[in-house]
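Researcher: Here's a chain I'd like modeled. Treat it as a single chain, no partners, no ligands.
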Amino acid sequence: MLKDRLNRNIKQFFYGFTQNLGLKAIAFTASITIWVWVQTKQVTEESFRSQIKFLLPDNLVLVNKPTRLVNITLTGPTGRMRILQETPLETNIDLRTQESAGTMTTNINIADIKNIPEGFKVARISPPSVEIELDELIKRSIKISANVVGTPKKGWYLKESRVFPEFIDVQGARSVIGKMATVKTMGISLNNLSKTVKINDVQLNLEHPSMKPATETPIEVLLEFQLNRSKQKFDDLPLSTPSGWEADPQRVPILIEGLALDIDGIEKKDLTLKFQLPKDFEQSEFNVQSPQLDPKLFTLFNNEKPLNVTLSTPLESIRFYRSEE
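Model: Modeled as a single isolated chain. Structure tokens:
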């Protein structure tokens, strides 16, 4: 019984499919015809963006920054619009016949637009024109300046920066580079640097779009760092003497000079100035008259740690004498 029912359903399906077959064929053909007509004959409108390329004579260069994009509205067959997604439009504004510098307004013409497919028409161009400023293209040898930023390693400072080569040939608009004294490099970070550092393949910071190097020249920058030196002044530091000796005065004003790493941040309460004599010293009295204190005789201690510094005092003299037993 199940088999008979299945056979009847199959016969009904084929009967329904083949009934009025001629009318169905006409309807199918008509739908295909309409689809083809829509794709090839129906006209639609769509906008596309196009990059503008300026063709210039060898002796002139753009000074301003004119718009580089133009909206082009095309009309054409609906089914062929996707062609423009595969082959973008190009807009070339040809200024190669321009003989002199100056400011001008140039129209964007249909002839300037390339890659318009056959069967398409330009409906609108926006903007319809562009403002252009041209200047004479020149070449000059300009000094390179190292553009350094940031802070070196603690206790160090940048003593000198040298650029190799010192000068470079640059071409650009006369109004831009005609009086330019230097051309800077891109920023060179000094952060955490010390001693001597060589930076290779440094790029120039060409501040105007008309500027570019006349030749490909590798640029190197040599940075030379030195340790910072510092000074500190204390009015009355205690003066420590060897056993059996006294000092007059017992507290002295001192000027300390040395590496910033050693003396920046030191506090008076932690400092002691010690005076020492050779063991075989036999005199009973000794006078220090020079402002510069001899490091063989005087040592400054910071929390019992000796400092490698230069010491001087504004006092005319310091008297040392043996104490009475």
